[in-house]
Amino acid sequence: MEGADGHFTADRAGGYLLNSEGTPSTSAAPLLVGSFGTPSGSYDRAARRWLPVSRDNVRSDGLAYAYAEGYKAKPSDQLESLTRIHVVSLADGNDRVIFSGGPYAVLAYEPEGIYIVGVHYYAGESSNGLWRLDPASGAVVSISANGYFVHVGGGVGWTLDRGIQPFVLTRLDLKTGATQVWADVTNVAWLSFVGVDGSGNPFVLQSSLSGGGQPDVLVMFTSPMNGTPIANGNFSLSSITDAHGSWFSGPDGIYLYSSGTMRRVSSITSGWGYPAGACL
Question: 79 in a domain, yes or no?
């Protein structure tokens, strides 16, 4: 299925076009290459085109993005054990490698730099640690040697206690290094990180351990251990926040959470659509 401007080709299975090397890429000139993420593509209003990376990989002004490319240390190796970190300028499509090593995956492109996480394999099955990469010099600064980081933004990093069926969400102040547990549902449910609102408060999806067909619950935490359920349902694990509120892909459409109210704004289901970019 093609976007309205023809700049990004999406299909029902993955939401991106794979080039001859199996890498997410766009279909319009200049050709843009990216990396797998959740979701796999986003719409950039500044450049007025689709991008083959998630919104977190895009610089705040919308004019550049970063992605990781896996490669083998030796041609005979079975796995891609190293990565090249690229920065792409959307003004001219220039794609430059700023770092090689790792393996790493790009987590976020913030004003102060590009945040990368260590991965066991390039595909990113799990991560450990957090580093900040200077897009100009290629210098890398270690932020945390440990932690399964799921989000960075506004000077804060969020970690889960494990990659599969986690129970604990922790907040890390990137400047001071102070940590604080914000959610702990041990022995009650396992949680998934969904995103943050305009004030940096996290949304998590809680899945009950008791079974019995109980629906997942979308919960917003406004302070440590203080969560408020805002909706039931299997919401996508990637939300987008802008001046209007926070946008979610739900089981029966697109939802907007604003001023304490969750409302469905589109009947496009999660199997066909997700919030791809911020509104003006």
Answer: no
Range of the domain at 280: 186-280
pLDDT digit string, tens, across residues 222-275: 999 999 999 998 888 888 898 899 999 888 888 999 999 999 988 876 566 677
pLDDT in tens, 24-33: 556 566 778 7
The total number of structural domains in the chain stands at 1
Q: Note the pTM of the prediction, 2 decimals.
A: 0.86
Asked whether 86 and 95 are in contact (CB, 8 A), the reply is yes
